[in-house]
ABC-type quaternary amine transporter (Agathobaculum faecis), 255 residues
Amino acid sequence: MLELKHIKKSYDGMPVLRDISIQVGDGEIVSILGPSGCGKTTLLNLILGITDADEGQILYNGEDLTHTVMEKRGFNIVFQDYALFPNLNVYKNIIYGLKNRPGISAREEVEELIDLLGLREHLDKRIDQLSGGQKQRVALARTMVMKPRILLLDEPLSALDGVIKESIKDRIRTIAKEYHLTTIIVTHDPEEALTLSDRVLIIDQGSISQYAQPAEIICRPQNDFVRKFILNQLEIKRNNIYALFGGGAARGKAV
Ligand SMILES: Nc1ncnc2c1ncn2[C@@H]1O[C@H](COP(=O)(O)OP(=O)(O)OP(=O)(O)O)[C@@H](O)[C@H]1O
């Protein structure tokens, strides 16, 4: 289990995270959701270990990692821009990290991931020959072969369009469940967070607004921010779709 206890962070005297305390269970998918500038990336970076908290503790299975360097935490991130090596083909990108830590994944495990992520037919391609969704899958495979204890994803779907987005969502879900891998995802899209995650952490100006399962958030929004910012966006989307198909927007009224 990952535990954040009373995490606080300021930049130049301006509080960015105010007293964040959460627990993330093993194998759970948690999305960090909130508007631009609310502190999502800062929180992800704190968990990863590239930013230090001013106060508070980060524990993993009871072990205090607050002052442990990133390399020793055993967490791994897929960045928004995928950060793949353009001069290497897909297969070499996937196994790149194993150079320094051979044996961490057996050959059969690498092959299994390649199939799970549907990358077999692309293995000899250069990165610039891939679509956004294919690059995202390569980035996931490259991270997964290193067997992270926690998988962190920074806006993994924002550059992808509808159908591909759904397929990557499925694969993220499959991987998290198949490998019982704790997965933490940063997103600003309520639909994405609520349909992909076991629990959603909604942040408003550096504070927890609500941390709950999607159904709980939809049925029992804890405050006006959740109602207005999160649920209203979904209502507007739904009404637009109904209007498009002639069902009339009146079916659902914005909260
Ligand atoms: N290194 C830094 N130095 C100073 N201020 C920073 C730094 N990093 C982030 N901030 C500030 O902290 C606040 C939160 O930033 P953060 O990147 O965590 O937000 P976010 O929710 O991820 O936003 P976005 O969705 O736009 O990426 C912002 O006001 C930002 O300007």
Remarks:
- The mean pLDDT is 90.
- The chain has three domains: 1-74+148-221, 83-146, 223-255.
- Residues 121 and 151 are 25 Å apart (CA to CA).
- The two ends are 35 Å apart (CA to CA).
